[in-house]
Amino acid sequence: MFAYRNYQDEDAYPDAIRRLATGIGETHWSAAEKSLVAHYRRYGHREIVGRSPAMRALQEQVNTVAQHDRARVLILGESGTGKETVAVQIHNKSRRRNEPFISFNCASVTPDLLESRFLGYEKGSFTGAHARRPGLFELADGGTLFLDEIGELPAAAQGVLLRVLEGGRFTRIGDREEVEVDVRVIAATHRDIPSLVRDGAFREDLFYRLCVIPIRVPPLREHPEDIADIANNYWLRLHRRRLDAAHLAALGGYSWPGNVRELYNVLERASVTGEGDFGRLLAEHRTLAVPLSSEQTASYPDNLEVATRAHVRRVYEKHGQNLSQAAAALGVSRNTARKYLVDPSRPSST
After folding, report:
1. For the chain, how many structural domains are there in total?
2. Under 8 Å CB-to-CB from 43, ≥6 apart: which residues?
């Protein structure tokens, strides 16, 4: 199922059925079958799950971008939406799939160490350099380098990264010879990069180098119809069974400001504690949940009437401007939904 959903590999079905039917052990499988199983064990939890229009559009975009394996991608989205999963999917669907996928969080290392992490260094090039160490670009040569939290990158490191992106060449710290690499760079951030550029906190030239293809990962509140599929996908991996209707109803009644990561956190808690009452579990979780960040709430108007109209408009657009579907999603009548869609500043036609 994983091979078909992600790579449209129809041969995986009959192969799997044949192995199950004959009872031939894994040691006698073909090299291709062993490779597929190893790939699933590594990436099986890295699927883009969901059948909503938003997730289908995201999957289509990933499939298209993956074929252009030199184009750089900037993945945008709130924390917990699955930006690294999108990066993994782009890598796995490209011709680089059998080459390294190196993931690095730009906020995880102090600024003075970032240059050495990017470029690598020679033995004795500075205090503590007891042996030669390849940098991220060397490690990812031929494959993909995923730079998470790119918005946290300090100015000095931005210049280092830009030089490598411009020429595909660099010199290790303490060395004289240039190294040439073939690396696809995929960056991700939850920050508003254009605002950082305007404020002078992020280099404009680096932004345009990274943002050849922008991909936005929608927050879970924009596709709540996928909560059941996402939760079941997770639960199947842990327990080889799906959640029941009461569990899914409880999960669907929460807004998940922490997105998919928060959903997984609650499901893991239920699995560890054996809690079967998800209503009680979520009631307890709400007392611990972190409130929406200022970035998430900044776009919401203070005026209730304006905010309501904006929300109804967003739901209306989300459902393809289908008034009946939008009204059903909002839990109101068509007339009520229509009332909020009419601009009050425009004169009535009557």
Report:
1. 4
2. 88, 92
281 and 141 both lie in a single domain: no
Closest CA to 289 of 320, 259, 310: 259
Judge whether 269 and 281 are in contact, CB under 8 Å.
yes
Q: What is d(CA 323, CA 333) in angstroms, rounded to the nearest whole number?
A: 10
Residues paired with residue 169 on neighbouring β-strands, in sequence order? 180
Q: Which long-range contacts (CB under 8 A, 24 or more apart) does 39-48 make?
A: 39/92, 40/2, 40/3, 43/88, 43/92, 44/2, 44/237, 45/237, 46/84, 46/85, 46/88, 46/89, 46/92, 47/2, 47/5, 47/6, 47/85, 47/89, 47/233, 48/82, 48/85, 48/86, 48/89
Q: Looking at the structure, do residues 172 and 274 belong to the same domain, yes or no?
A: no
- Please tell me whether residues 55 and 195 are part of one structural domain: yes
The Cα 313–Cα 309 span in angstroms is 6
CB 334 within 8 A of CB 323: yes
Q: Tens of pLDDT along 255-288? A: 999 999 999 999 999 999 999 999 999 999 988 8
> Which among 96, 82, 35, 118 is positioned nearest to 190, based on CA atoms?
82
**The tokens of 103 are what?**
């993931």
60 and 72 together in one domain? yes
Report whether 153 contacts 110 (CB < 8 A): no
pTM: 0.79
Structure tokens given for 189: 């951030």
Q: Give the residue numbers spanning the domain of 278.
A: 220-291
Residues 36 and 85 grouped into a single domain? no
8 A C-beta contact, residue 221 and residue 255: yes
pLDDT in tens, 16-63: 888 889 988 888 888 888 888 888 888 888 899 999 999 999 999 999
> Is there a domain that residue 79 lies in?
yes
d(CA 79, CA 296): 10
- Which CATH number do you get for residue 227? 1.10.8.60
Place of tokens 């998470």: 148
| 346 inside domain | no
Q: What is the CATH number of the domain that holds 110?
A: 3.40.50.300
